[in-house]
Amino acid sequence: MTYSPSHSPLNTRTTERVRHLLPDPSLMGEDQDGEKLRFMTARWNQIEPAYEAFKAGREIPLNGTALAAWSGVTPEQAEVLRTAGIRTVEEVRDLPDGQLDRVRLPNMRDLRKQAGLFLANSDAAKAAEREAAKDAQIAELVERQAAMEAMIEELTKPKGKAKDAA
Q1: Both ends of the chain: CA-CA distance in Å?
Q2: Where is 14: in which H helix or E strand?
């Protein structure tokens, strides 16, 4: 396997066998909880998703929404986009006019517009989910506050009302 740091993917490359990249505490000797194991675990956590995708025959995008997650294109259209170097829905949305003609698909301008709408709607759905979660949390807090106020009121009531009346 060949990997590189994200800040320098073209200039720095390291080639290593996968079995040597796997963090295995039993091979660490005295340093089982040490710096080397933490480094190997952190490195493997970064590499593992790409490795698993490679083993499954999939390609995962580095940044953005995978074309496979977008119902706006068929698998055949997604393959045409990939051969043109486009791997994410965001790349379709941000495609400059000069490059639209290079992609061998009809109605690329419409496809670009659909990609923008898809991303805007998916962001809106995520925002709606966050708002619903916040509303539920606020309702729970209001209920708890009312219960606490009732408890405080009960605890601070004068104890001898019957004596005061006599």
Answers
A1: 91
A2: strand 14-15
Nearest 10 degrees: CA dihedral of 128, 108, 53, 8?
-90
Element (H, E) at 108: helix 108-156
- Paired with 47 in beta bridges are none
Residue 117 tokens read as 């709408």
Rounded CA separation 61/12 (Å): 20
The model carries a pTM of: 0.45
Say how many domains are in the chain: 1
pLDDT digits (tens, 9 = 90+) for 33-88: 678 888 888 888 888 888 888 888 776 656 778 888 888 899 899 889 888 888 88
**Residue 105 lies inside a defined structural domain of this protein:** no
2: helix, strand or coil:
strand
For residue 139, give the amino acid letter: A
Cβ atoms of 80 and 103 within 8 Å: the answer is yes
**Residue 93 lies inside a defined structural domain of this protein:** no
DSSP 15: E
